[in-house]
Amino acid sequence: MSNLQLITETLITGDGAKLKELVQNALDEGTPANDILQKALIAGMDIVGEKMESGDMFIPEVLMAAQAMSTSVEILKPLLADGESASAGKVVLGTVKGDLHDIGKNLVLMMMESAGFEVIDLGVDVEPEKFIEAIREHKPNIVGLSALLTTTMSMMQNTIESIEESGLRDSLKIIIGGAPVNQEFADKVKADGYAPDAGSASKIAKAMNA
Ligand code: B1M
Questions:
Q1: Residues lining ligand 1, judged by CB closer than 6 Å?
Q2: Exposed/middle/buried for 177, CB within 10 Å: 0-12, 13-18, 19+?
Q3: What is the pTM of this model?
Q4: Which domains does the chain show, CATH number per domain?
Q5: Taking a C-beta distance cutoff of 8 angstroms, is the pair 166, 115 a contact?
Q6: How many Cβ atoms from other residues are within 10 Å of residue 16's Cβ?
Q7: What average pLDDT does this structure show over 21-40?
Q8: Cα–Cα dist 182/75, whole Å
């Protein structure tokens, strides 16, 4: 079994300590951090998702895998950074109300911070009013909304409409993303941008602020 396959298998078992060790070993052997993230960890979470859907894994096991993934991403964080430090702008970021998934959102946070953005992370299950409060307080250039459930996609629309109704919409750009989201949906809810992954989210944010 290759390094990356072993990482994927270990992620699925949820053994965080072993996973950290394997990720560190792979880095020491020269495997690029981005390969570990994309080909082993994100690929592993996709398998976890399939197992969850088919009833072969249950929520506590999925949570263990998610926790193991998060701790391993911490090791990769400095290596995925693109080294820029000057402030590229401010981003308010959160997973919309009703949705508790945060691994993808945290990757977006990491990529945006490493591209020089100051990111205010509102966490998960964020109500539209909380986004509005944060916009008033922090005056961001960009708001990022994440959703992983088809049932919470409509909350992206609610959030964008609430921002519009509060009169704050013209002062910022809105980027949305998450597995069920696509460009067509972004157009429908009048987001300014859609990003399929964390790397593109940070690129789009930079382009919007250029
Ligand atoms: Co949930 N879950 N989950 N889950 N979960 C999914 C999303 C699911 C696809 C699994 C499945 O059935 N195959 C399914 C959704 C089906 C659907 O609606 N289409 C699902 C379900 C059904 C549920 C529950 C309803 C299960 C239940 O209770 N019966 C429940 C809902 C809870 C809630 O939110 N209210 C639930 C719960 C959970 C856990 C809490 C156990 C756990 C989350 C832990 C956590 O996040 N801290 C969990 C997990 C881990 C998953 C899977 C397995 C993995 C998600 C993940 O972290 N992926 C997931 C299956 C899957 O995705 N394959 C699944 C890795 C991550 C890096 O990818 O988040 O897609 P992702 O982020 C990507 C891009 O989407 C993008 O960038 C990232 C990559 O670079 N991106 C953005 C994300 N946000 C962005 C924002 C942007 C731009 C890009 O701009 C701002």
A1: 42, 45-46, 48-49, 52-53, 59, 62-63, 66, 98-105, 107-108, 144-146, 148-151, 175-180, 195, 197-198, 201
A2: buried
A3: 0.91
A4: 3-79 (1.10.1240.10), 89-208 (3.40.50.280)
A5: no
A6: 18
A7: 95
A8: 30
User: Average pLDDT, stretch 161-188?
Assistant: 97
Low-confidence winner among 16-20, 50-54, 93-97, 172-176 (lowest mean pLDDT): 50-54
Rounded CA separation 171/162 (Å): 14
- Counting ligand 1 atoms within 8 A of each CB, the residue from 12, 48, 52 with the most, and so the one to mutate, is 52
CB–CB of 135/99 below 8 Å?
A: no
Q: What span, in angstroms and rounded, lies between the C-alpha atoms of 57 and 72?
A: 21
